[in-house]
From TrEMBL:
Keywords: Exonuclease, Hydrolase, Nuclease. Its EC number is 3.1.13.5. This is 3'-5' exonuclease. The keyword Ribosomal protein does not apply. It comes from Modestobacter marinus. Residues 1-19 have a biased composition (Low complexity). SMART domains: 35EXOc (SM00474), HRDC (SM00341). The lineage of its organism: Bacteria, Bacillati, Actinomycetota, Actinomycetes, Geodermatophilales. Gene3D superfamilies: HRDC domain (1.10.150.80), Ribonuclease H-like superfamily/Ribonuclease H (3.30.420.10). The keyword Nuclease applies. Pfam families: DNA_pol_A_exo1, DNA_pol_A_exoN, HRDC. CDD domains: RNaseD_exo.
Length: 432
């Protein structure tokens, strides 16, 4: 296969990646040899203009509807810059339609695109990251192929998009703009090239991974995993998100937790109103240091390093007021040291609280590690670690293979996972 020296792409637009002469016996062996990767420097059809008007959107949606085969889909967000996780660019590519770069800022309703490709298979990498922001725009797939998840099931040693493209297709992607502020307008041309290349080879990658999964007998596993992603729907709202504040483990008592929660909520409210990432309004470290210092007046708060800046001097009323509210909360309204949950205790306490459960978990983990090695699938993909802990802490009754299988299904395990693990988990329960 010849390639365009400027892009490294096949000169025949219909050509796909060439595979090794012999079928690999495992995924790792299939990616260790070969020539150095060829950089992808430009889209094969040239950089398309950004779709930013209703007329252009309808025209591209018509082209997508007339296209054939799967649709490569990607989205760029402004994580770390804006408050939420909204998309600031949507990229699509389909045979016969070419690549489209859609600006959702002036075009927040993409139902025209949904109508055009709603029945097609969508190809995304790490779909869970992009599906929520795509859904905000009216884009929801009915069929899905997740190349990141497929790479995990295939046992590839690295599953990032660039690594998988390089190992399976022999091309290298430039990843310099992955953490950029995609809310920037106008978007620089080199950013747009980067965005277009992210969907340039996604369908070819899907085909290469599908072939590996078929050779390994895992096609049905992948089908079940993709169906589970679609069935899961939007993520549930996080409970007590303030507990994710970096450094809060250094706080000693519930009163400090109450102050931290109040200050976190004040920051979150301000960040939402201004559409700024909360960490840019006030870093987590500043929140924790303010709680630990427990300033008695606004002047004392302004003596702390981050609060000396001009922006926070203007907001000192907001920050100090939040600290006061947390400090003055009634005892029964203070947050607990840890959020009450319905799950088992931390694993490091199992030995003391329930030695039999600890023995069950040890046996289960050993069995799952063997299955992971046998099938070249990461152990966390063989079965959710949280599910394993819950099952070993509170085994079903009776603890036979059928009851274990029923418990796994009820907890959301896919059928391929049930068949692989029900026996070893039944044995692990017996070991306790």
């Amino acid at each position: 296969m010849t390639a365009d020296p400027g892009t490294g792409l096949p000169t025949d637009p219909g050509a796909g990646p060439t595979g090794p002469e012999e079928e690999p016996t495992d995924a790792a062996a299939s990616v260790e040899e070969g020539p150095p990767p060829t950089p992808l420097l430009a889209p094969r059809d040239g950089l398309p203009p950004v779709v930013e008007t209703s007329t252009a959107l309808v025209a591209y949606a018509d082209a997508l509807a007339a296209g054939t085969g799967p649709v490569a889909v990607d989205a760029e967000r402004a994580s770390g810059y804006r408050y939420g996780q909204s998309a600031y660019l949507v990229q699509l590519r389909r045979a016969g339609a070419g690549t489209g770069l859609i600006d959702p800022v002036p075009l927040p309703d993409l139902t025209a695109v949904q109508r055009a490709i709603g029945d097609a298979e969508w190809v995304l990498h790490a779909a869970n990251q992009d599906l929520p922001c795509l859904a905000e725009l009216g884009l929801v797939p009915t069929r899905l192929f997740d190349t990141e998840l497929a790479a995990r099931l295939a046992g590839l040693p690295r599953v990032g998009l660039g690594a998988v493209v390089e190992s399976l297709l022999g091309w290298s992607l430039q990843k310099g703009h992955s953490a950029a502020d995609w809310s920037t307008r106008p978007l620089p041309e080199d950013w747009l090239v980067y965005a277009a290349l992210d969907v340039e080879v996604l369908v070819e990658l899907r085909d290469a991974l599908a072939e590996i999964l078929e050779d390994q007998g895992k096609t049905e596993w992948a089908r079940q995993e993709f169906a589970a992603i679609l069935a899961a729907g939007p993520p549930a709202p996080k409970v007590d998100p303030w507990r994710k504040t970096s450094g809060m483990h250094g706080l000693r008592n519930r009163r400090q937790l109450g102050m931290l929660r109040a200050l976190w909520q004040a920051r979150d409210d301000l960040a939402r109103r201004r559409d700024i990432a909360p960490g840019r309004v006030l870093p987590d470290a500043a929140i924790v240091s303010a709680v630990q210092a427990d300033p008695k007046n606004e002047g004392a708060l302004l003596e702390l390093p981050v609060f000396r800046g001009r922006a926070n001097r203007k907001l000192v009323n907001t920050w100090f007021g939040a600290l006061v509210r947390g400090r003055e909360l009634p005892e029964d309204q203070l947050p607990l040291h840890s959020r009450p949950g319905d799950g088992p205790p931390p694993v490091n306490r199992w030995g003391d609280r329930d030695p039999a459960a600890a023995a069950r978990l040890k046996a289960a983990r050993a069995g799952l590690a063997q299955v992971s090695e046998q099938w070249s699938v990461p152990v966390e993909n063989v079965l959710s670690p949280d599910l394993v802990r819950r099952l070993m802490w509170s085994p079903p009754t009776p603890a036979d293979a059928d009851s274990v299988a029923a418990a796994l299904r009820a907890a959301g395990a896919r059928e391929w996972q049930v068949e692989l693990t029900r026996g070893l988990l039944t044995e692990a329960i017996a070991a306790g």
